[in-house]
Amino acid sequence: MKLYDLELSGNCYKVRLFAALANIELEIVPVDFLAGEHKGAAMLALNPFGEIPILVHGEVVLRDAQAILVYLARLHDLESWLPSEPQQMAEVQQWLATAANEIQHGPNAARLVDKFGYELDKPTTLVTSARILGLLNDHLTEHDWLALGHPTIADCAVMPYVAIAPEGGIALDDYPNVLAWIDRIKQLPGFIGMPGQV
Prior knowledge:
Pfam families: GST_C, GST_N. Helices cover about 50% and strands about 10% of the residues. By secondary structure, it is of the alpha+beta class. Strands 2-1-3-4 form a four-stranded mixed β-sheet, with helices on one face. It is globular, with a radius of gyration of 16 Å.
């Protein structure tokens, strides 16, 4: 099973993190993002969107970090990470959608501006970040984990770009429950970090 990967990508890190926590073996294939390898013919044949991560498992080729997390959890029948019971699965899925929406357009987008020079509307990224971080902090006032009272792929999906939010000029000091949650994730057996993480 191959993961086409970029070390500095929070989306790629989501998959590496979950694989490490769940003891899933992946062959990591580094992609030379700066040289534009992700837009080359070989990579576009795997993912016409020209994005990473990409998971290749036999004949299965998947793009999008959240989809890959779902695939790995169900492939390995990891009920605690992604239950098959409808309500519980939906509770996890809510947070996967948050990762792909508010987190992507908030902390991730702010980091893209500051760290990589993307031409995005930085003030909008900051407003989006403040809203989602406030909601996260409130949720984590009464919950140790995002869903179901224990670690799930929801935590793996949401945490990466939150934990590297300072690279986008977003301080986390006003969100103590978020910081405590990040620390809980770091204490999980098998945890691996990524550059820039708080």
